[in-house]
């Protein structure tokens, strides 16, 4: 069926369309230059008829999916046939539309079910939930072949709902989740008042309800991150969103993991799986492989470690080529505990040498990059290159020994579990709905890979990752932690969510003013709000000479009276532990005095604190600035002493009321000097001249 302009008319029409034909549910337009085909699905079904001086015209509106609507006019048509032709076209279109509507009615229940999946979805709609729904919806639409305009006329409400979620899903998801969160906040308001020892504040409540695929709660010291973690586990169970056994809580150290378990038990929540990363990895290996997995005694027992290393070194030093390499190194650089003056074989047992070697072996084993990449990264640093040549064979020998024993150390354990989980995470990961991680700032690339393997894979609903941490308190780089995994959370998980807690309950505003400013001197630390719940006008951080420790202690004991008072002494190393500690503990029974290293103080709190020996070369600790260790630990464009700054921040934020910083009056460290020279609210009994000296 076709209507064409006469030859004469075509001559007048020139470049425009001069013919229209109907061809199996599509319109075919012809002009001198081209033939254009328009399926019924993009035509609005209307033929607009108009009359020129001599001939008739037909105009059509078509709406292609990928372009704006377009008007097509056919000119020069014989007027006496135009109406009849237009009517026939409309009849064909109506017949086609009728068939489409019948088809729609057949699939309408399926489409309603699709809409109800989202409408009836209870809980937080995660980004992956929406993506999975959108993929499914596309499949249904393609399979059913239902056209939007057909659905839009047959069931406008259904059309609006489904296309809204398909085309504007993220905005719809956010609006829906905000409404859900507000409802939950109201419904659980009284429960949030009583779940922890103090009512949760607003930002803590909102944090408890975070439930996307990848969530990070980032907050400063004492802001209640651990409290939120505990409250969230309880909320998930109380609101029947999951069973306790489907929650996995991971911590880095055994102590932290046990504390989590204790706190949950105290709250009456039993059955949540609390574990260290290592214990979890061991369990995963055992269950997935069905075989026994053991930690090698070499990885845990100092004596076994020492014997193995002594034997390995003795055997290798006895080889002239190896001895030559080591001696060549010693001619230029020193190695702790090793002298070029004595035969190396005789020194294989040296404790200092072995400590140095184990440290480098461990660092190398933690690297996620290949041996070639490591080599390339230290190129030009002669000392590091030479050390690498010494240490790499030791690592090789150590890994071979582990293999021979069919056992793991702490590094290989995590790697093996990750490998198994990546292949078979569906079944194993399906047992969990929620993976929670405390102290996320301490995560290493290897542990993060384990988490990703656990939360990844194709499955119905992958577990959500809920991490709490504080990039300001990242102090374990030497153990393989990488703070950029926290500061770069959103690059790793582009659709992740980060929330903050804005109030610290541990320390007053004076300690806060010192600590928060001190840590943010480093521009690479994320800036975040942290107000103290307790405002105070009187300065609470004091710079003192080291010989004043006893007099401050005495005053403190006097002012404490009968009130049980805790005092935390901190030093950079174990060597900073005061010799008189035992004496003081006996002398001042009203004070509960303990000593920890600054690293050991993480997570602790006390009424008062002393930071001891903040001396030049001690705190911040001197870094060698060269060699393999420093090359492997270096971070591009990092502020000098960045890691030590975070460590000092941790120490500063342990006390509730007051913190004394003690330094050698002749050589206070740059941190003590900075507290005086910067605009920090501190008092000082140190010489101004010494503090001001650069
Ligand atoms: N909403 C609150 N009201 C009053 N006190 C609170 C509140 N939330 C937490 N706390 C108290 O604040 C202190 C610090 O809490 P918590 O140990 O959970 O903080 P954190 O952020 O994990 O600290 P850190 O990072 O230093 O380990 C605890 O004594 C806790 O009981």
TrEMBL record:
ATP binds at residues 219-226. One of its GO terms (molecular function) is 3'-5' DNA helicase activity. Its EC number is 5.6.2.4. The keyword S-adenosyl-L-methionine does not apply. PROSITE patterns: UVRD_HELICASE_ATP_BIND. Keywords: ATP-binding, Helicase, Hydrolase, Isomerase, Nucleotide-binding. SUPFAM superfamilies: P-loop containing nucleoside triphosphate hydrolases. Residues 198-508 form the UvrD-like helicase ATP-binding domain. One of its GO terms (biological process) is recombinational repair. NCBIfam families: PRK11054.1. Belongs to the helicase family. UvrD subfamily. This is DNA 3'-5' helicase. It comes from Grimontia marina.
